[in-house]
């Protein structure tokens, strides 16, 4: 990223995951990350929806969570990366989104995707074989509902009336074709922290997806590319590995059960497969400057998942990202640059 490019946005993503079954503490700690990020000048805070804990997160109701975060923060934008759209009633979802948007003063971003858990689809009575069709149909309804159109039946419109969501809908994709589809619908692009099912580095796999998306974009508004990455700075590499190494290795073993990763990966190869940036901030900056997809990104979204990091270490990592890593890449805190309008 160079100084002649438009200012990029810095985000963080939490899967709201804890150890054990103390959900109150897990949720409280995750809320605290939003307030810390808000004070540090992060532009966006994202949560991931998981109906099944083994899929890597403990938050099934993201919009309830974000309503609470809206009351605790001042200016950080609030979004989902992602909401599992085929499992949602799109009209009810539009009502929740519009409510949180009003409560937050227009700070909502909505990221959607089709999810991957067969168990979730079975629990909600949805056919996993139709997930792409369902995602497309539900997104169309969601767009129209948020645009204030009549939906469901003549005379029905969602309340409260939603703000302008034309530039605030994102789609998570896992292929160049999916990226082109997102561009055709006018959605912004979300790229996952890892490219599953590939042996090549994640950035080499995802760079062509981002290029396909930008080539297919034909609207006057600026397209946005959100790049999610595992970023964990610490005083040195050894300290970082102590916090994230074993969790990442275990997560790779779980991914191997579904065929997404090879079996028997050691910690270093697991970290590579999850495209991890960890260690001293200077090491991370040097590595991110070599990231092949990052030059096309408008939003860098840092996360610690699949590691479940102790709360104090997570707060310290956010501080290092905001004060040492991101500024070295050309980012300036939102509190200094002024609020970022929706969809720009």
Automatic annotation (TrEMBL):
Residue stretches making up the Luciferase-like domain: 13-290
Pfam families registered for this protein in UniProt: Bac_luciferase
InterPro entries from the UniProt entry: Bact_Lucif_Oxidored, Luciferase-like_dom, Luciferase-like_sf
Protein name: LLM class flavin-dependent oxidoreductase
Source organism (scientific name): Streptomyces griseoaurantiacus
